[in-house]
Amino acid sequence: xxxxxxxxxxxxxxxxxxxxxxxxxxxxxxxxxxxxxxxxxxxxxxxxxxxxxxxxxxxxxxxxxxxxxxxxxxxxxxxxxxxxxxxxxxxxxxxxxxxxxxxxxxxxxxxxxxxxxxxxxxxxxxxxxxxxxxxxxxxxxxxxxxxxxxxxxxxxxxxxxxxxxxxxxxxxxxxxxxxxxxxxxxxxxxxxxxxxxxxxxxxxxxxxxxxxxxxxxxxxxxxxxxxxxxxxxxxxxxxxxxxxxxxxxxxxxxxxxxxxxxxxxxxxxxxxxxxxxxxxx
Length: 281
What we know:
Layout: H1 4-19, H2 52-55, H3 67-73, H4 80-88, H5 93-102, E1 119-120, E2 126-130, H6 135-140, H7 147-157, E3 167-170, H8 184-201, E4 205-209, H9 211-218, H10 224-227, E5 231-236, E6 241-248, H11 251-256, H12 261-278
Parallel strand pairs: 2-3, 2-4, 4-6
Antiparallel strand pairs: 1-3, 5-6
């Protein structure tokens, strides 16, 4: 005779697996409807007990202009509004890096090993935006250092570029488990930092790598094979100008579909022509 409670538990577990759950992150369940996170600027009225790990701030590599205190003030908020306020308060890339490193409002950070901010040189005025860190990036704290990153380096070299001439970042600063696509909430927590990142880097050319980057930077939802090769304009209010933006395939996709490399090559030839026209190199 079967145990109905056991069957019910197994049924619930199967449902969770089918919904995408792939790991347990705590020994005890947390009722998030009963214990809300404290709100910024509520005068402490909503302070309730939280797990010790959530209360322990991450160390910051930089302390500039009081941004450390500002980051800690919003460290327990998951609201995109808090991220927008913190990002807007940063006036240099160093301050933004420090703010992102200390931000606790994205659940992905609690499962990642490192914060991945950027690599390369913003002085080149050519900015590449990928999707999210993978395993190698999570381990090293730098974007595009795994197999896809090595392919990207070869793609850049084919048109006379390297990391000393371009600036590379991602939509997300932390690795999603199993390299899955980010949830809308996870992306919303990171996007204010990305928008400010673009403003502070002041690129004259944007290269969006992959569907996730295109969707979150420009809001375009068509398939990347349909969108790739197109030139769009990223409107930056902080810069007061539009930035020429090309949509292309992510190197990780090219590793899975080598036949698509010919399409990426066409895109990079167009990028090379645009660089020459803008006088960037």
